[in-house]
Amino acid sequence: MSTSLTAPYTTAFDFERTVGPRIGVFLAGLRERRLLGVRGSRGRVLCPVAEFDPVTAEATGDYVELDPVGTVTAWTWVDPRPADPLDSPFAWALVRIDGADDSFFHRVDTGGDPSLLSSGLRVRVRWAAETVGSIEDIVCFEPVTDDEPSGSAPSGSAP
Amino acid sequence: MSSVRPSTATDLPAPVRTISAPFHVDYTYVAGVGRSVYLRGMAERRFLARRCPGCGQVYFPAPQHCARCLQVLDPPFEIPGTGAVSTFCIVNLPFPGQLVEPPYVVAYINLDGTGNKLQHRVLEVAPGDVAVGMQVEPVWTDDDRLEPSLASVRYFRPADPALRDGGHDA
Ligand SMILES: [Zn+2]
């Protein structure tokens, strides 16, 4: 009688939450498989879109259209959890989108092989088969292959 | 080469206003040696309390150490599980997983013989008839549903049968 009881527990809340008006445009762009950025202070391009410049706290300005291609700047390798859309291990990474001055935090899928990943790797967006206006419209980033130009039109819009 | 192209207001999509942001955590609850005593009692329809040898405080549910003087509590002893409503609220909002159809009362109950309060439902009484100081008694679940959990107590009800309305059955 001196041992401790244990039990499996689950805590869950089905939250629905509002997003800011500018982040809302960014998410709506994802639904159209478009990657939008926004001008922050001193002309810096922020992608993903932020409501306020993270350095100066000033409201952000005009939107810009970006190619869904970038460069891995940092990453960490993880096993997939039940909620992740990938079945094999992948990286959570910072990706600097071409033309942006900050980093995009998302998954990078190299098919489960960490040796294919490095800082400096060129990657592109893999769009979800069905887009709804959510950050998960981007399933992940994946390596840019040799036989495609790195600044091409968004993938997923092809037939 | 620049991949940054200005976007005019006219070609921007209408903003998304809300997103689904579910929160979900699976974990293992570890009751601890002290609280496991009371939980095992629940599976046997027993309220097992423990007294502090230092300050005399009686706890239900009891931890392993007194919250006031940190002494290890004495061995468990049984209390009747009756008590008095200390404070209460009337739950009117429905929510997922709710066990009782609102409106119903959730109360803090001063269990007889203890120095702390227990939160539980007070049913078999119209919410408007519940009062601070009302004497209540536990209603246990059926034998085949007893478990090492406070869920073995389905709810509390007025100790005086004349105050019960019999209308609620959780
Ligand atoms: Zn004490």
- Tally the helices of chain A: what do you get? 1
Proportion of helical residues of chain A? under 10%
The biggest sheet of chain B, with number of strands, parallel, antiparallel or mixed sense and barrel status, is: 5 strands, antiparallel
Poorly predicted regions of chain A are: 152-159
Across the major sheet of chain B, the strand order is 9-8-7-10-11
SSE arrangement of chain A, N to C: EEHEEEEEEEE
Strand content of chain B: 25-35%
> How would you spell out the order of helices and strands of chain B?
EEEHEEEEEEEE
Enumerate the spans of chain B where pLDDT stays under 50 for 5 or more consecutive residues: none
Distance between the termini of chain A: 66 Å
Radius of gyration of chain A: 18 Å
What do the pLDDT scores of chain B average to? 93
Number of strands of chain A: 10
Q: Summed up, what is this model?
A:
The complex is a heterodimer of chains A (159) and B (170). Chain A has one helix at residues 21-31; strands at residues 6-13, 16-18, 35-39, 45-46, 63-66, 69-78, 90-97, 104-108, 122-127, 138-143.
List keywords for this structure.
heterodimer, A: 159 residues, five-stranded antiparallel beta sheet, three-stranded antiparallel beta sheet, 7% helix, globular, B: mainly beta, 6% helix, extended
Provide structural commentary.
- The complex is a heterodimer of chains A (159) and B (170).
- Chain A is mostly beta strands and 159 residues long.
- Chain A is built from one helix and ten strands.
- Chain A has one helix at residues 21-31, and strands at 6-13, 16-18, 35-39, 45-46, 63-66, 69-78, 90-97, 104-108, 122-127, 138-143.
- Chain B has one helix and eleven strands, in the order βββαββββββββ.
- The radius of gyration of chain B is 24 Å and the shape is extended.
- Chain A binds chain B through residues 1-19, 21-25, 27-29, 31-32, 34, 36-37, 45, 62-67, 69, 83, 98-99, 133-134, 151, and chain B through 1-7, 12-33, 35-37, 39-40, 96, 148.
- Strand 1 (6-13) of chain A pairs antiparallel with strand 3 of chain B, so a sheet runs across the interface.
- Zinc ion is lined by residues 52, 54-55, 57, 66, 68-69, 71 of chain B.
